[in-house]
Amino acid sequence: MRFQRVQKTILWQAGFALAAMSLFGIQMAAGQPGRSTLVMTSTNDSSSNAVAVFRLDTTGTPSLALSQVVPTGGKGGAGGNAGILQFSDKRGAVANYGSNTVTQLMRHGNAIAAEKTIALASDCVGPDSVALTQDHLFVVGAACAESHDWPSGRLDGNVVSLADNSAGQIVVGRTWAAVTMKSGSVLQLGLGGDGALSGVSGTIALPGDADNTPLGAAFWGNVLGFTPAHSPDSFAIVDESQDVFPIAGPTPPYPSNAPCWVAKGPHSIWYTANSPGHAVSIFFSDAQGGAFYKSVPVAGTPTDISVSPDQNWLAVIYAAADGAHVAIFSIDRYGDLTLAATSAAIGVSSFNGVAFSE
């Protein structure tokens, strides 16, 4: 494995290349007539978890209004995590940390329903992050990472035991998956031929300036981007050969700034939720490094973050004095952000997880 840096001249060239690529624009997904863009987040209630569903109205001045609250049938209570709610096509999944289950969600027209409850593998508890591919649901919690056939929910592949209970997020690339461990490492998980977990795992060694509190993660094809949030190099790129490329983040570093959670944007853009900095911090990269671009203010403490399938919108959940909110930013052809709409407080102190359905 290698720890590498990219010279500033190369990074400036990458920046110009990003600007040039963006002139081609962002390809927009064809919307279905009458089909709304929905934004979902978990209330994370430790007694009765639910999914809050907001409708994004982009006619005229964009607005974000609560349209549903869907009980999951389980208990929340997760913390220090991301990706507890995911959605793909017409189905989604949300983990119930306090009940050791996952609830399958289904879209019917412009409404979301809880379809069924999926149990975890034996001895696997405290699910705090999920990931979806076309054929599999992946779950990580306090003791295990596991995969399930999707959408049946049947346990599939091999369960991977974890060395400690510090898992922050599970994400899946083309040929491998990864789990960030807040204790200071990233796990590489092998995938079998059918796409389920093979049971093979290894620890990716991280350099000393990018190993403090790995939190969020996302894939760009087979390249992993993750945030060692409390490190001077608070973003890093990892390839499937376990080569690590640290990238310096916004200054001053932690505790003033800490890019925590990650969403992959258009082209070579990565968006991160910078909790102490009350901002979205933006990076760009190639497969062997990158650079911090800038931070965009958020009106509270951001936690999870998600990009819409058509890559036109960024959703950020954040906590403010009056409770939890969802902020929607529009993404322009260069990857820059403009605040478009913010949800009203609904009596929840903090949300957990955020996902789009278009």
What's the topology here?
Elements (H helix, E strand, L loop, with lengths): L7 H15 L14 E6 L7 E8 L5 E9 L13 E4 L2 E6 L4 E8 L2 E9 L9 E4 L3 E5 L3 E6 L5 E7 L5 E6 L3 E6 L3 E7 L5 E8 L9 E7 L2 E6 L6 E4 L5 E4 L11 E6 L4 E6 L4 E8 L2 E9 L3 E7 L5 E8 L2 E9 L5 E6 L9 E6 L1
Describe this structure as you would to a colleague:
Helix content is 4%, strand content 52%. It is mainly beta and 358 residues long. The chain has a four-stranded antiparallel sheet with strand order 3-2-1-28, with no helix packed on it.
The topology string of helices and strands comes to HEEEEEEEEEEEEEEEEEEEEEEEEEEEE
Total strand segments: 28
- CATH superfamily, please? YVTN repeat-like/Quinoprotein amine dehydrogenase
Helix-strand makeup class: mainly beta
Strand content: over 45%
How many structural domains in the coordinates? 1
- Strand order in the sheet with the most strands: 3-2-1-28
Please state the overall shape, judged from the principal axes of the Cα atoms.
globular
